[in-house]
Amino acid sequence: DQQVKQNSPSLSVQEGRISILNCDYTNSMFDYFLWYKKYPAEGPTFLISISSIKDKNEDGRFTVFLNKSAKHLSLHIVPSQPGDSAVYFCAAFAGGTSYGKLTFGQGTILTVHP
Amino acid sequence: GAGVSQSPSNKVTEKGKDVELRCDPISGHTALYWYRQRLGQGLEFLIYFQGNSAPDKSGLPSDRFSAERTGESVSTLTIQRTQQEDSAVYLCASSRDRLNTEAFFGQGTRLTVV
């Protein structure tokens, strides 16, 4: 049962344009969402997060949007840079006894072309 | 060290042999997780340790898998009688405490069962 889904395995974008990475979830108990970035042969690194009490969080070129009614979140990267090329994972987190257990999506490979 | 350290970085083993993977979390981090990523898949939760609480083992795929953690330090993940489907990158992550959602990952151990 895939509770967090990233339906696009890959995304290709031109440098300077916007990259939009999407993520859907099914568990309504999730109340905190994170995006991680992963380069080859490295572990994932935290990028940005959002609490379910918000619908938007911005950090520099990265913005995460949360639509709770649709159980959907997205990561916008503007402007995209070649160094952003990596695998992006969205992750979700539920309070209570599941606190600390991140559930990850399958990942989306982003390629930013110069 | 400053980050999460995992060893070995690569391990090739014969089917049926036991393997032990090691994780050194960031000093002072009470929460520790093991995930694995099989080829083309997302990050699959295996086990979660939080301080002195009983570990959440709900993600372990079979009784061939076990993990231990000594206090708030090193953790070892043991796979007995390895099978080819165990081939994956095994990732360890730690976070400051159960209330801190940002997890820091190690570089992973790539396990290949031949």
Principal-axis shape of chain B? globular
Quickly count the helices of chain A. 0
Count of DSSP E strands of chain A?
11
Global geometry of chain A: globular
Number of helices of chain B: 0
Structural class of chain B: mainly beta
Number of DSSP-assigned strands of chain B: 10
The low-pLDDT segments of chain A are: none
User: How large a portion of the residues of chain B is in β-strands, by DSSP E?
Assistant: over 45%
Q: N-to-C SSE series of chain B?
A: EEEEEEEEEE
Mean pLDDT of chain A: 92
Query: Level of helix content of chain A?
Result: under 10%
What fraction of residues of chain A sit in β-strands? over 45%
Greatest chain-chain interface? A-B, 25 and 25 residues
Q: For the CA atoms, what is the radius of gyration of chain A?
A: 14 Å
Biggest sheet features of chain B: 6 strands, mixed
Report how far apart the termini of chain A are. 38 Å
Give an overview in words.
The complex is a heterodimer of chains A (114) and B (114). Chain A has 114 residues and is mostly beta strands. Chain A contains no helices and eleven strands. In chain A, strands 2, 4, 5, 9, 10 and 11 form a six-stranded mixed beta sheet that branches. With 114 residues, chain B is mostly beta strands. In chain B, the strands form two sheets. In chain B, strands 2, 4, 5, 8, 9 and 10 form a six-stranded mixed beta sheet that branches. The N and C termini of chain B lie far apart (33 Å). Classes of the chains: A mainly beta (114), B mainly beta (114). Chains A and B meet through β4, β5, β9 and β10 of A and β4, β5, β8 and β9 of B.
